[in-house]
Design brief:
By secondary structure, the chain is α+β, with helices and mostly antiparallel strands. 52% of the residues lie in helices and 26% in strands. The chain folds into 4 domains: 66 residues, no CATH class; 119 residues, 2-Layer Sandwich (Tetrahydropterin Synthase, Chain A); 73 residues; 61 residues, no CATH class. α4 runs antiparallel to α6 and α7 packs across α8. The chain is built from 9 helices and 14 strands. It is elongated and about 175 Å long. Strands 6, 9, 10 and 11 form a 4-stranded antiparallel sheet that branches. Strands 3-2-5 form a 3-stranded antiparallel sheet. A 3-stranded antiparallel sheet has the order 12-13-14.
Length: 336
């Protein structure tokens, strides 16, 4: 018995399958449109949105929407970036020298190995994206040029010892000026010198000895200045004390002299009025000063003649020798 099989309806089958495919395509298109309409700006980045070639900056953080397939979003990292010049690091974090960057020539035609670390940040994402195709490479070239130009103005001795801070400051100023001129949306954060040394071990040891000697010199100078600063105030204080004592002595002598002048003037006035009495008194006072051991005995008998005796020796034992001197008081006064 022959079995009857109903012919398959290919037209209905394909019609049914086609509707499913279109549904899938529509769903996928909706998903793509939805995904292309949303973008997120993280805390460490900014977004540049281009609409028919016109760029706009979106710096607000969080979820944002855009026109799908028309607007394009490019995210730019705005954190501080680091650039090693003269050295690099392997995957383990070990540093190694990059000689074609680090070897530089000084003003006295010597070679040194100079390493720098450059820190920079994107401050204008639009300029960073469209002013140059390789802005980070430009930063490195500017830094290399500034370092070589600055180091070439110093002698090897200065570059390795006392000139490091000045070299670093000059390199930083030159990089800032060059970046402003290039205007690629990048700002220098810092340029710090990592190491400056001769390229051979023998020269390194020699310059280390020189640096040690210079540090010893600076230490000795500082100690000497400290000692000087301690001694100068003490010496000035001693000088002030001596000057004050001298001034006091001066005032004392002046006062004493003024007193003697006043005394002499007073005695002279008395002498003018009473010459004989004043002369006798002055004579007696002078004798007391010149011969302090003498005892003066004055004998006046009322006849107008005064006698005085200078007693020497032991008066109480009766062995005193009397030296008699007489002065005619009235006649001597009148004759003088």
């Amino acid at each position: 018995m022959e079995r009857y099989t109903e012919p398959m309806d290919f037209k209905g089958f394909f019609k049914k399958k086609g509707s499913v495919i279109w549904k899938v395509i529509i769903v996928i298109a909706i998903l793509l449109i939805g995904l292309d309409s949303i973008y997120t700006v993280e805390e460490t980045e900014s977004a540049v949105i281009t609409t028919f070639g016109k760029a706009e900056l979106m710096s607000e953080k969080g979820l944002h929407f855009k026109i799908p397939f028309i607007q394009k979003v490019v995210k730019v990292d705005t954190t501080v970036k680091g650039l090693m010049i003269g050295y690099s690091e392997d995957s383990s974090g070990n540093a190694y020298s990059v000689e074609h960057e680090s070897i530089m020539i000084t003003s006295d035609y010597n070679f040194i190995d100079c390493d720098f670390y450059i820190s920079y940040q994107v401050t204008d994402p639009i300029k960073y994206l469209y002013r140059s195709s390789e802005p980070d490479f430009i930063v490195k070239n500017i830094a290399l040029s500034a370092i070589r130009s600055t180091v070439s103005a110093y002698t090897v001795d200065t570059a390795i010892t006392t000139g490091k801070a000045e070299i670093q400051s000059n390199v930083k100023s030159m990089i800032i000026a060059e970046l402003e001129q290039e205007d690629i949306g990048i700002t220098l954060v810092d340029a710090s010198i990592q190491d400056v040394e001769p390229p051979t071990d023998e020269v390194i040891e020699a310059f280390t000895a020189v640096e040690t000697a210079k540090q010893g010199k600076e230490s000795a100078i500082n100690e000497a200045n400290t000692y000087r600063n301690e001694q100068i105030p003490a010496a000035e204080a001693e000088a002030d004390r001596i000057i004050q004592e001298a001034e006091a002595e001066k005032e004392a002598r002046i006062n004493e002299a003024n007193g003697q002048v006043a005394r002499f003037t007073e005695e002279y006035e008395e002498y003018i009025n009473y010459p004989l009495i004043t002369k006798q008194r002055l004579f007696f006072e002078a004798m007391e000063e010149v011969l302090p051991t003498l005892k003066i005995v004055i004998d006046s008998n009322g006849d107008g003649i005064s006698k005085y005796y200078s007693v020497t020796g032991d008066y109480e034992d009766g062995t005193a020798a009397l030296i008699e001197n007489s002065t005619a008081a009235s006649s001597a006064g009148e004759n003088n």
